[in-house]
Specification:
This protein is mostly helical. The chain has 16 helices and no strands. The protein has 2 domains: 125 residues, Farnesyl Diphosphate Synthase (Orthogonal Bundle); 177 residues, Farnesyl Diphosphate Synthase (Orthogonal Bundle). α9 packs across α10, α14 packs antiparallel against α15 and α15 crosses α16. The two termini are 29 Å apart.
Length: 380
């Protein structure tokens, strides 16, 4: 699973307040870049047209439903729980503490954000983490479809101002302060259902959909909170796509890092058809032997993961300046995980690639420098 946060307080589609909509060809070019990222295009057929359009429709729907004028002073269509301010402050403090404990680097980046955005991001992070733990946490053995059904009902209660506990209350308050829609949250729960039903993925198209559900959705949840820079000339749809790409790239990186650990649980989150193209099967994964064929296969997978980070990169520069640092930190650190896999001679079967504390600390000022870059007119 992946718990990562990506990128409006003023999203717009087309022409908005004098801003120019980016050309449609921009999205087409970006998606083509993802599909043809590997150096040997015949190796990876990529996504089918239908697979792409399915995600396009989801993103378009989220942009439309989350696009009211201003996240902090626009009209709010929600039922705000009648809690005392001190109770809500305590609820957000609990979310902050959880984020600080389990996502230390990202948490440091959030400290530059405005207070309202900080609290909202912490609340979203905590909900995503709790959702993930239903399947991967210490009580995962007790998971059943009924648990996820109840969790989805509880999500609806959160959006309707009936939180179950203090952590739910923080998110319930957040959805009244920002234009958050339930769809990305529900889609994440659907990703958990997927995890209980599937342990193999026949093609990258299937894996891409899974990555959208469990990680791309986090980016879509975060867009209304992070804020788009006032000087940005890029459409909201393009920014949402950048957030989606960052989530996909992060999840693909998690999958590549955790191949050996997942194999011990009988899971293979790798496209079966692409394994076959390199003469590999699940048996090779479970044998945990690094061969030349495995190295060649991993090189192509890493190229693909990096292509998603490339697509996300300039989207990160379109954010409100106070929100860029945590996104750049996440993007740069996840790239270093891919570097670590290479440094391990592509042995992700018996070794876990990780970025040491020193490298993480050295990355933070570099990420801050990148966060100072101004939005450009067009994405590459």
């Amino acid at each position: 699973m992946c718990i990562t946060l990506s990128l409006s307080s003023k999203p717009c589609i087309g022409v908005c307040n004098g801003s120019l909509q980016s050309p449609k060809s921009m999205v087409t070019t970006a998606r083509t870049e993802v599909i043809t990222a590997p150096k040997r295009p015949n190796t990876f057929p990529g996504l089918t047209k239908q697979g792409i359009s399915d995600i396009d429709l989801r993103v378009q729907e989220v942009v439309r439903r989350q696009s009211w004028t201003n996240s902090l002073d626009g009209e709010v269509n929600c039922r705000k729980p009648p809690f005392e301010p001190m109770f809500i402050d305590d609820a957000y403090d609990k979310c902050r503490n959880i984020c600080a404990e389990y996502a230390k680097t990202f948490y440091l980046g959030t400290l530059l954000m405005t207070k309202e955005r900080q609290k909202a991001i912490w609340a979203i992070y905590v909900w995503c983490r709790r959702t993930d733990e239903l399947v991967d946490g210490p009580n995962a053995e007790y998971m059943s479809p009924a648990v996820l059904e109840r969790w989805e009902e509880r999500l609806q209660d959160i959006f309707e101002g009936r939180p179950y506990d203090m952590l739910d209350a923080a998110l319930s308050d957040t959805v009244c302060n920002f234009p958050l829609d339930t769809k990305p949250f529900r889609d994440m729960i659907e990703g958990m259902r997927m995890d209980t039903r599937k342990s193999r993925y026949e093609s990258f198209q299937e894996l891409y959909l899974y990555c959208y559900y469990v990680a791309g959705t986090v980016g879509l949840m975060s867009v209304p909170v992070m804020g788009i820079a006032p000087e940005s000339f890029v459409s909201a749809y393009t920014i949402y796509n950048a957030a989606l790409y960052l989530g996909i790239g992060n999840q693909l990186t998690n999958i590549l890092r955790d191949v050996g650990e997942d194999a011990l649980r009988g899971r293979v989150y790798l496209p079966q058809d692409e394994l076959a193209q390199f003469g590999l099967t699940d048996k090779d994964v479970f044998s945990r032997k690094v061969t030349d064929a495995w190295r060649d296969f991993m090189k192509e997978q890493i190229i693909r993961a990096r292509s998603f980070f490339n697509l996300a990169e300039e989207g990160a520069s379109q954010l409100d300046k106070d929100s860029r640092w945590p996104v750049w930190s996440s993007l740069m650190l996840y790239r270093k995980i891919l570097d670590a896999i290479e440094d391990n001679d592509y042995d992700n079967l018996t070794k876990r690639a990780y970025v040491g504390r020193t490298k993480k600390l050295l990355t933070l000022p570099l990420a801050y420098t990148r966060a100072l870059s101004k939005p450009s007119l067009y994405l590459r």
